[in-house]
């Protein structure tokens, strides 16, 4: 190992879609990253069960972002037959599950779009950029248009920058639900 480096074990999960992971069969890691789609449709009870499932995995730090299937975690109403007021309460209930006592007990840190710095007990420090947004529409949560650049302030002729929390220099881990531009990112609609 090079001087100044600290061995840190990281597990990346995504798209568990309400499936159970048996934490007792998982390797022990320092950091667990879950990059979205805990649920099929963002139901509050499904989020609760997902938090319990992630609680069975041993990791000092568990970072979680939403994905396009986690509707209730998107502040923009995307549920039919629900008024804006009803949806606001639904969204608040979902957020409470992800940041409230159950999530804390499970060791989960739920992150909205932005840049964060963490330090582990082994001394490892790293910066993480997170975003639940995914190119496409079709009624899913956290959408942006395919010709928009959600992640960078860079001026590109083929994209319109809509970055409100762009990826900063010095970021060690980029944690998004959607893939990078031109790498398996084609969507219909």
Automatic annotation (TrEMBL):
<dbReference type="InterPro" id="IPR029052">
    <property type="entry name" value="Metallo-depent_PP-like"/>
</dbReference>
<feature type="domain" description="Calcineurin-like phosphoesterase">
    <location>
        <begin position="27"/>
        <end position="181"/>
    </location>
</feature>
<dbReference type="InterPro" id="IPR051693">
    <property type="entry name" value="UPF0046_metallophosphoest"/>
</dbReference>
<dbReference type="GO" id="GO:0016787">
    <property type="term" value="F:hydrolase activity"/>
</dbReference>
<protein>
    <recommendedName>
        <fullName>Calcineurin-like phosphoesterase domain-containing protein</fullName>
    </recommendedName>
</protein>
<dbReference type="InterPro" id="IPR004843">
    <property type="entry name" value="Calcineurin-like_PHP"/>
</dbReference>
<dbReference type="Pfam" id="PF00149">
    <property type="entry name" value="Metallophos"/>
</dbReference>
